[in-house]
Amino acid sequence: MLLLSVLTLVAWVFLLGLARRMATPGGMLEMAMAGMPMPWTFRDALLMFAMWSIMMLGMMLPSATPMFLLYQHTLHQRLPADQRNLALLLFCGAYLLVWGGFSLAATLLQWLLDQRALLSLEMRSQKPWLGAAFLLGAGIYQLLPAKRACLRHCQSPLQFLLAYWRPGPSGAWRMGLAHGLYCLGCCWALMGVLFVVGLMNLLWVALIGAYVLLEKYLPGGAWLSRMSGLMLVLWGFLLLHAG
């Protein structure tokens, strides 16, 4: 638990540092002048990928902690001591790999939007129709059966372990991937809201991270998901109408 808390804290410290660095003269934000897109360098791409990866780490680790702790406890009962640490490392590594893949996809999407001058200086959508598309997409997904199915797996770590338990290090890797994919399926659409409010708007990053935690572990998480979906859809229509 202490290690996970430290990792989350370190992720937020890096996010704050990135936010300051990108706002300084010569930083990445200066490339985002409206109507004046500039090619990304390899360094810029790495910086954006690092931003997304660290952001996902800071947002998702708190909600993934109960699963990690339960898995660690289960390992003490089912695996010999010489395999426990490796299995836990592989489980957590596979989970983070899934979100690393999402971070790469988000970086590519950001690059595509930036090159078409669709992102502002604050790295948020400049066109009302684009912002509305992100909000409506996130809101509608919140109401779909696929969202509810993924949320059920994330809400019940014990049931997940009972259903997906595989022995040994290779089993730990497969289980980590499975849990990561369910977690991704539960939360990926919400990350599109960041393209509306600003990718480095750390207040919204914190709010979405807190919402994900509440959605997974409050008794009424399914209802919270539906309510947030309706609110996002309404926000999307209001943004579209205002534009």
Biggest pleated sheet: none
- Our measurement of the CA-to-CA distance between the termini, rounded to an integer number of angstroms, reads 46 Å
Give unreliable regions as ranges: 30-36
Number of strands: 0
**Count of helix runs:** 10
Which secondary-structure class do the elements indicate?
Answer: mainly alpha
Shape type:
globular
Compute the number of structural domains.
Answer: 1
Mean pLDDT: 87
Order of helices and strands: HHHHHHHHHH
Question: How does this structure look, described?
Answer:
The protein is mainly α. The protein has one domain. The chain is 78% helix and 0% strand. It has 10 helices and no strands. Mean pLDDT is 87; it is low at 30-36.
Brief synopsis:
This protein has 243 residues and is mainly α.
Which key phrases capture this entry?
mainly alpha
Protein topology:
Layout: H1 2-23, H2 42-78, H3 81-115, H4 128-142, H5 145-155, H6 157-164, H7 168-187, H8 194-197, H9 202-217, H10 221-242
Helix pairs in contact: 1-2, 2-3, 2-9, 3-7, 4-10, 5-7, 9-10
